[in-house]
Design goal:
mainly alpha; globular
């Protein structure tokens, strides 16, 4: 989502990324690998919120609830119910983010061939390993 919401829209132009043109998805993956802390939008959740004991130098922080963007209204409603509060979902305008498709389709559309596709999935799997394991993300 950081690629779509920040790079494609032009809201963020990485300093040492390609200049004068839109950074490709593959270039962005490499950029994130080399600059994991440059911007909070592409930091791993495990790193940013200390949810994994695998993050070097950080103690794991216990959260009672973690609300996932994919299940935002559902998860947030449960948090409110636990606090005995009434939940009123916020109706925001939907924006055109192509990540509403499954991840595999998105990666196929943004890579040049099967080799690059497999490389991108493997690389993102390494960069976001703890997030993928913790939240059960997949590419199917």
């Amino acid at each position: 989502s950081a690629y779509e919401d920040k790079i494609v829209t032009g809201k963020i132009r990485p300093r040492d990324g390609p200049t004068g043109r839109l950074m490709t998805f593959v270039e962005f993956i490499l950029y994130v690998e080399n600059h994991p802390h440059h911007n909070v939008h592409w930091m791993s959740f495990a790193e940013r919120c200390s949810t994994s004991s695998n993050v070097e130098g950080k103690a794991k922080f216990h959260y009672d609830y973690i609300v996932r963007m994919e299940e935002f209204d559902n998860d947030l409603e449960k948090v409110f119910a636990h606090a005995n509060l009434e939940y009123h979902p916020y109706k925001k305008k939907s924006h055109n983010v192509s990540l509403s498709h499954n991840r595999a389709d998105y990666y196929r559309q943004h890579t040049a061939n099967i080799s690059e596709y497999k490389w991108a999935i493997a690389k993102v799997g390494i960069i976001y390993r703890d997030d993928i394991v913790q939240f059960g993300y997949s590419f199917s």
